Amino acid sequence: TLSELMEKEGVYHTLITMQTFHQIEDEEADSELFESEKSPLFKSPSNSSLHRIKSTRGSSFAASKGDKEEKQKFKHDQAEEEEDVPPVSFIKVLRLNVAEWPYILMGTISAIINGAMQPLFAVIFSKIIVIFANPDPEVVREKSILFSLMFVAIGVASFFTMFLQGYCFGKSGATV
Q1: In a domain, 105, yes or no
Q2: Whole-model pTM above 0.70?
Q3: More exposed terminus of the chain, fewer Cβ within 10 Å: N or C?
Q4: Which helix (H) or strand (E) holds 32?
């Protein structure tokens, strides 16, 4: 059973306490709870409020009833705070960002070009496969050089648009 494994203080005990410790560190960073309320780690297994192990995304952690109640209360308070936010129109947001419009526009154009690069690469790649089926070696050589230059052009264009996209969106975001 769980309590027997915890009493042996072996590998399983170490695994659980390490994961519980990491969860406690995260909770300390997020909220200001008292040590006695959040740490089943420092209590003995028989006296602990540790009542189950829950698995999420491949990791396990220990939870107590008090922790669950506080998390639910925190989520409820957060929901109330979010409800008090007044609605803002999209046009008003755009007006507030008038100074960043050149960066946003250039970043958007770069993102569109960048998005077109992958399908363009796929189309050219499929055409070059057909070329190698041609029995004439001279035609294969000429078209191979042409398509190789197209791949280089796509790479260069992708480099510049990716840089421009990151710079423009980064600059507009930093200004905002």
Answers
A1: yes
A2: no
A3: N
A4: none
